[in-house]
Amino acid sequence: MREAMKKLISLDRERGVITHIAALLGWDQETYMPESGIDERAEQLAIVENLAHEKAVNPGIGELLNRLEGEKDLSGQEKAYLRVSRREYDKETKLPAGLVSEMARQTSLSQAAWVQARKNNDFKRFAPHLATMIRLNLEKASALNPGAPPYDVLLDLYEIGSTERSIADVFAVMKRDLVEILGAIRSRPQSDDSFLRRRVSPAAQARMSQYFMGALGFDKHRGRLDTAAHPFTTTLGRDDIRITTRYIEDYFPSSVFSTIHEAGHALYEMGLEVGPDYSGTRLADAASMAVHESQSRMWENIIGRSLPFWGAHYGHIVPMAEGALEGVALEDFYKGVNRVEASLIRTEADEVSYGLHVIARFELESALIKGDLAVEDLPGAWNDTMHQTLGVEVPDDRRGCLQDIHWSMGSFGYFPSYALGNLYAAQFWTAMKAQIPSLERSIAAGDCSPALDWLREKVHREAAALLPSELVLKATGSSLDPSHFTGYLRKKYSAIYGF
Ligand code: ZN
């Protein structure tokens, strides 16, 4: 390997090490830190994150990139690495320092205002901050790519290579199908799922979580499970991936599916193997947020809420559930954990209505960024959209446009990743099933390894070398097509609800 490439990799690794130190501080803050540690912890994190930023914008990286990009006979992996490094370096260096510090300052004010506004159901209190976050995002977009439509630039930060047009085309098909499936479900009676609210102790739920981590193939030598108020996954090193869950005593499925979801993220992180030369570099990162989400949704929903999966594991879970599932048939349990009901809150939504929550946010935030929707008109527009797509009446802004933290943090263009994750997952699943005819029989026999092996080979090992669109094409043989997702939903839910 060329000296210049080795030098670039070592600068990149230093940055990576510091981001892992920041992740450790963040993980500790959410899991074990006593409350009184928060002020000092914020200071520690600010210093470490600043250090990581300094490492990332080192002009030496720019010089090495300029030199290496002109070289001939680069290997495929070298080219991919330079492409990823260039993209991230430009992203970090193109923003003026004044804008970065202004964003940091305004974001903490805006988040604090959002917390208060949500608590008191007072949109007016948050509105000026939202307007500021929109203005700063427009400045950010213009600094990053002055010629392009601002919302496209913002989307590209989360889902590389996507545009408003490309996402709108996919979402249009998805919306039409989801509305139709939801309508069909609504015309059918709901079955009783009250047994899911019987008490199960946190200790018993913890044992279930450990059981499912094992069933999925989570390597407990390279990761661990702890509890946090909001479940998350974080990477502290190549061989140290932490997941968290939470135990709700009168609704144990929450911890079961949170653990499976986060374990799905962790399995992806554990599988980002790009060989020793590039380990610890930006090439060993995920392809995108949506691809990351496709991995968690694959395990949580497509596999983890399927009948074959529960056929294998239900008999092990019943004795762990402290009597809560006594006399509950597998079939009823399966229907219970797949109940579909249009509701107000995105994070509590089922597989079918979830996409509609995301599409509503996509439509609203693109209108906000383009100036087609004024900030003060957001609550009304939100309520209209929810009525039209989900058929629900929003009683207050707390359960309406104030429910999510994202816009208060200045994250515009983030939401579509959640829905794209479902679409990628379903398309991977279709390809996986076609290539492994015995897949569902293995899952029904309690063996998830064929699914994990397929994901390792087709998705995880590609790491950040491909754009999400290239990854989907290479792994499945076709471009992103939402009909895999809606076809999967239609088949599953027509069987459950009988339509
Ligand atoms: Zn997730």
Give the overall average pLDDT: 96
Q: What is the total number of structural domains?
A: 2
Shape, please?
globular
User: At the third CATH level, what is the topology name of the largest domain?
Assistant: Neurolysin, domain 3
Essential attributes:
single chain; about 500 residues; mainly alpha; Neurolysin, domain 3; 2 domains; three-stranded mixed sheet; about 65% helix; globular; binds zinc ion
Describe the 3D structure.
The structure is a single chain. This protein is mainly alpha-helical and 499 residues long. The protein folds into two domains: 3-147, no CATH class; 164-497, Neurolysin, domain 3 (Orthogonal Bundle). The chain is 63% helix and 3% strand. The chain has helices at residues 3-31, 38-56, 59-69, 76-93, 97-120, 123-144, 150-158, 164-186, 202-216, 253-270, 289-303, 307-317, 330-336, 351-370, 378-390, 416-435, 439-444, 449-458, 468-476, 483-497; strands at 223-227, 233-237, 240-245. A three-stranded mixed β-sheet has the order 1-3-2. A hairpin with a 2-residue loop joins strand 2 and strand 3 (240-245). Helix 10 crosses helix 11. The model has no long low-confidence stretch (mean pLDDT 96). The structure holds zinc ion. Zinc ion binds at residues 261, 265, 293, 296.
